[in-house]
Amino acid sequence: MSFIATPQFLHFADPLPLTGGGSIRDYTLAYETYGTLDADGSNAVLVCHALNASHHVAGVYEGQPRSEGWWDNLIGPGKPVDTNRFFVIGVNNLGSCFGSTGPMHTHPDTGEIYGADFPVVTVEDWVNAQARLLDRLGVRQLAAVLGGSLGGMQALSWTLQHPDRVRHAVVVASAPNLTAENIAFNEVARRAIVTDPDFHGGHFYRHGVVPKRGLRIARMIGHITYLSDDVMNEKFGRQLREGLAPKYSTQDIEFQIESYLRYQGDKFSDYFDANTYLLITRALDYFDPALAHGGNLTLALARATARFLLVSFTTDWRFSPGRSREIVKALLDNRRDVSYAEIDAPHGHDAFLLDDVRYHGVIASYFQRIAQELAAPETAP
């Protein structure tokens, strides 16, 4: 049974320096919290979101059917990340389109909608913004930071940017950087958006239009990469949408997989912001903590002092298990405390969002360990 979640907002007047130069000021971060913060602030868990997600991690909104948070199956009372024990925080990142300041909001210097003028933000910038929010909430150190996919990159970056503020990092279905193939997928999706006649150089708000055609294609490309070949074949195969015989048309929807992709594209284009898509995929592209160390991931992760759990899925070809093992090896090279689980699951990259008894069991066991650590000082003689 889910609980009622309530969005909250914090405004930050002071400029936040950005990795790419310049800064952003007078911005707002949307967030939600679940559970109760201990008197000593020791039980806080930060959840970092991926591309198409937000601060609404768990629970439901009162009076809104089917409004479950995107990780509601993992986080909540009695769930693997138990909000009866932990104070869980979800933050919507800068540049997103779900409540925090983004391209659809007003630039404080010009009074105009940011649009394409919204500054490029990186994973490192998001982490620094999250740290400011935690300061305001009175959280000095996190019991854990948790994220999947792009959220896992943020969790990893937390251990490098603020090593003294993180005791545990849980990195799920993620990677230390994107492969050339992944950057290529992102670029094709971005080109679909920017070449849409309704994009208007990113200032489509002024024209009262939305580049829906580009957004649809971008989402269709993304969905292909999130699913495994086995799941796609099992779910759709070569089933025709109507009847048993093809229409022999180049324009009509013939196959069920085509219908599914078009549905996902249509739905996405109704709520997601095109400039946000460009910003978040670029943040994915730029993340590479080893870059400043000559490509040596072991050197890059030497700053981390947290304990780690990494989880990957065998059929995830976008963030393959091999990428998680790169992180594991670099941490072991630095003699860090690392646990690793490779789950044999058929669902591809989307597996980190789905119900899997083994996967949830690993997460539950790890957070049980964290809870025991928190209780240990109280029970010690």
Write the layout of secondary structure elements.
Blueprint: E1 8-12, E2 16-17, E3 23-24, E4 27-34, E5 44-48, E6 75-76, E7 81-82, E8 87-91, H1 123-137, E9 144-148, H2 150-161, E10 168-172, H3 180-194, H4 212-226, H5 229-235, H6 256-271, H7 274-286, H8 297-300, E11 307-313, H9 321-333, E12 338-343, H10 357-379
Parallel strand pairs: 5-8, 5-9, 6-7, 9-10, 10-11, 11-12
Antiparallel strand pairs: 1-4, 2-3, 4-8
Helix pairs in contact: 1-2, 3-4, 3-7, 4-6
From the structure above, extract its key features.
381 residues; alpha/beta; Rossmann fold; Rna Polymerase Sigma Factor, Chain: A; eight-stranded mixed beta sheet; two-stranded antiparallel ribbon; 10 helices; 12 strands; 35% helix; 14% strand
Ranges where pLDDT stays below 50 over 5 or more residues in a row are none
Compressed to H and E, one letter per element, the order equals: EEEEEEEEHEHEHHHHHHEHEH
The end-to-end span amounts to 38 Å
Write down the overall mean pLDDT: 96
Oligomer: single chain
Count the domains.
Answer: 2
Number of strands: 12
For the largest beta-sheet, the strand count, sense and barrel status come to:
8 strands, mixed
| Estimated share of beta-strand residues | 5-15%
Q: What structural class results from the helix and strand content?
A: alpha/beta
